Amino acid sequence: MTATPELSTPRTATPELLRSVFRQHAAGVAVITARGGESGARPVGFTATSLNSVAAEPPLVSFGVGVSSSSWPVIAEAEYVGVHILGDHQEELAATFARSGADRFAPPTGWRTGPEDVPVLDGVLAWLVCRVVARVPAGDHRIVVAQAVVGDPAGAGRPLLYHQGRFNGLRD
Q: Which PANTHER family match (predicted)?
């Protein structure tokens, strides 16, 4: 019989406890993009580790976005969003889209206007353009549910992960 390690004393749930627990959870890294409704509006985007596949039929994804985020006003009104799966070679891109106040679409970020006028990032492992079908209140965030309408899974490389407060790649 092997000894069971002693459990630490449980703590009351707080925002810090939740952050500490989820530092133990490795998550894939995505960038969500959108453009405001008026023609020629500046694009917005942010790094997300909350991306989930929700259903295959119809093809639905979800992600969380903070209502205090600079991207939220556009995401709150956007009919379509871009979902980009980052490769382990894109740590700097992930950091740029996570940085407050950064001009996320300025060089060296490579991107183009894709289907439904959604900004599509260059060099990602895979991307989708999705039609937003729901925005669900969840504390200081909204959970956005969106249906994939077009995409490309053909990028090369391995996924970028986020764990223990840093970007990482997979190990063999």
A: FLAVIN REDUCTASE (PTHR30466), FMN REDUCTASE (NADH) RUTF (PTHR30466:SF1)
Is this model's pTM higher than 0.85 or not? yes
Residue keyed to tokens 């969106």? 146
Q: Is 83 exposed, middle or buried (0-12, 13-18, 19+ CB in 10 A)?
A: buried
Under DSSP, the state recorded for 151 is E
pLDDT band at 134 (very low <50, low <70, confident <90, very high): very high
Phi, psi (5° rounding) for residue 77?
Answer: -110, -15
In three-state secondary structure terms, 170 is coil
- Closest by alpha carbon to 148, among 43, 52, 36, 73? 52
**119: closest CA among 46, 27, 29?**
46
Per-residue DSSP letter, 120 = E
Measure the CA–CA gap between 137 and 10, rounded to whole angstroms.
28
CA distance linking residue 8 with residue 71, whole number of Å: 39
Rg (CA), the chain: 17
